[in-house]
Amino acid sequence: MSDTPLSIAEATAQMIAPGQMFETERMVINGVEMSVWKHAPTSLRQVLDLSLNHATRDFLVYEDERFTFEQHYRIASTLAHRLQAIGVKKGDRVAIALRNLPQWVFAFWGAMVTGAVVVPLNAWWTSDELAYGLTDSGSTVLFVDEERLERLRKQLDNLPELETVVVVSDDPKRPAHIDAKHDRIHFIGFDDFLGSVDPTATPPEVTIDPEDDATMFYTSGTTGRPKGAVGTHRNALTNLMSLFFIGQRSTLRFGGGNVDGEGASIQNAGLLNVPLFHATGCLAVMVVNTASGGKIVMMHHFDAGKALALIEAERLTMIGGVPTIAMQILDHPDFNKFDTSSVRSVSYGGAPAPPELVKRIRSAFPVGQPGNGYGLTETSAAVCLNSGPDYIERPDSCGTAVPVCEVAIVPEEYEGDEPTDDMPKGPEVIGELWIKGPNVVRGYWRKPEATAKSFTNGWLHTGDLARVDDEGFIYIVDRAKDMIIRGGENVYSVIVEAAIFEHPDVADCAVVGLPHPVLGEEVAAVIVLRPGRDVSGDEISRHVAARLARFEVPTKIFFRTLALPRNPQGKVLKRELRDSLEDQVRD
Q1: Minimum mean pLDDT among 15-29, 103-117, 490-504: which range?
Q2: For residues 238 and 404, what is the distance between their CA atoms, to the nearest angstrom?
Q3: Residue 428: exposed, middle, or buried by beta-carbon count in 10 A (0-12, 13-18, 19+)?
């Protein structure tokens, strides 16, 4: 390799050339012409079949449990036949409401290869939120752990389409505690439902096309209720190929790759620090490792000391999730007592990383490369990733878009359906980031108005303000409107505001994110009370906690007598409000 690395443009041109693995081609999908990966698998069923190429390798590690790729393949295949036996067919929705457990992965692949649409539900949602996700999606089958089942008990009569609930034990050493009866819904423990695993089992024969629906991840926005973003098999497989492409391009430019000092292949092994119910955890971690033969190591809950022990014991090559995870590991007092020399990648997303963290990663992990990426639920995870020397040079950029993604910087006031050539351009031009490509989901489940607002002619309107430099590096200037990222969890202001407004003494409110040294951001609420009312912050917190998940409850509550600042259209000026609160906190 030359002493001067190839530029991003040069390496990309080589890799997408005709005949190459990452060759692209133009295709019309649902009436929209776009670039696609020519040699991508056509369905996630093919990915599961490919996993048998790594049959004897460890795939899933959780506490004292280990599952090889072949064991996983046979379990998932057997589970698929069990689902078919109870009537699950192509297009049916199968929901998963579990913490990160091996059974989450089994359920995903088992349902996926029946042709069903997998609906990952946020495991931290409240009873009402879980019930909403189940009824909105029309899920007929639910995989749930004991903790989530307890939350749902009072909602059973409100789940008209749910037929079967498969319960996973919180303790792998004992059967699931069900203790639930219903005249319509059938409850069964996971082990009983799975039964004996056929050592020769293969997935059922179901025709699955690239444009068939595969997943429904819930996100949110201005409606105040979560929206199911419906992703196709092509969407998920585009993300798979895009991440493979990013990794291979980095190796082409800078060397390295998953080989040791003597050139022997190293199994990638990652610590799973993001929930599988997020697009990142599911599509960017689980699906990618299923295809590539990587090992996924799970924890019941994150603990920096235990994470260090796992890095040493499992020879982990990748850690990440959100910047706070990396910081907690580096800050642990016993960090230097563990062998962390296997770590080659410390990548994160979901929140900007302090520059000091980048320096600390480079110092703590001699062969570890820091990285940061950008993607959304609506883009099936990755749009771009900035890592290695590029990230060191441009730590405030999230990288360049993968070749099958088109990006445009669009004026915020623009009302057209697609970008035009006469729009302002240049590295200092800031506008809303629009994205088009085969990774963009087809829309929101049963929400045509929300779909029409966010998706036009194949373009996703992200709501993020960004700029793009002359080499194509994307810089996010301001995040999606009304969204706060607290410890890696997306908190949508409008949902928290809706909960606060249910309090009878609240006249007006606004929710914003404030900087937090560990979580990245914390949720802050500014409240105007009705005349003559007197309410404490603790009462507001209890009120919200009864309606929303714990991570959505404001940790700072400010009361004011003046009206909230608004623009002529009546919209709260949240940036102005946030700036004034930051000044107030500093003072």
Answers
A1: 490-504
A2: 8
A3: exposed
CA distances from 466 to 148, 378, 435, 436 (A): 38, 17, 12, 15
Per CATH, 67-208 and 486-586 having the same topology is answered no
The hierarchical CATH code for the domain 67-208 is 3.40.50.980
How far CA 91 is from CA of 29, 30, 117, 184, in Å, comes to: 19, 18, 6, 22
Q: What is the DSSP string of 446-513?
A: T-HHHHHHHEETTEEEEEEEEEE-TT-EEEEEEPSTTEEEETTEEEEHHHHHHHHHTSTTEEEEEEEE
Return the CATH architecture of domain 18-41+230-478.
3-Layer(aba) Sandwich (3.40)
| pLDDT tens digits for range 34-44 | 999 999 999 99
Exposure of 9 in the CB half-sphere (CA atoms within 13 A): 4
Cα–Cα distance measured from residue 356 to residue 350, given in angstroms and rounded to the nearest whole number: 18
Q: Sheet holding 318-321: strands in order across?
A: 65-68, 58-62, 295-298, 269-271, 318-321, 345-348, 369-376, 381-387
Eight-class DSSP state of 533:
-
pTM of the entire structure?
0.87
Residues 6+ apart with CB under 8 A from 413: none
Please enumerate in sequence order all residues whose Cβ is within 8 A of that of 310, keeping only pairs 6 or more positions apart, or say none. 271, 297, 299, 316
Q: Are 329 and 309 in contact (CB under 8 A)?
A: no
CATH for 486-586, options being 3.40.30.10, 3.60.60.20, 3.40.390.10, 3.30.300.30: 3.30.300.30
Contact 34, 438 (CB under 8 A): yes
Q: What is the pLDDT of residues 346-392, one digit of tens each?
A: 887 655 565 667 778 888 888 877 888 899 999 999 999 998 889 88
Reduce the DSSP state of residue 279 to 3 states and report it: helix
Angle at 226 between CA 348 and CA 326, to 5 degrees: 15
CA distance 530 to 507: 5
Distance CA 440, CA 239 (A): 10
Q: Which residues contact 2 (CB under 8 A, 6 or more apart)?
A: none
Cα 143 from Cα 169, distance rounded (Å): 11
Domain boundaries, the chain: 18-41+230-478, 67-208, 486-586
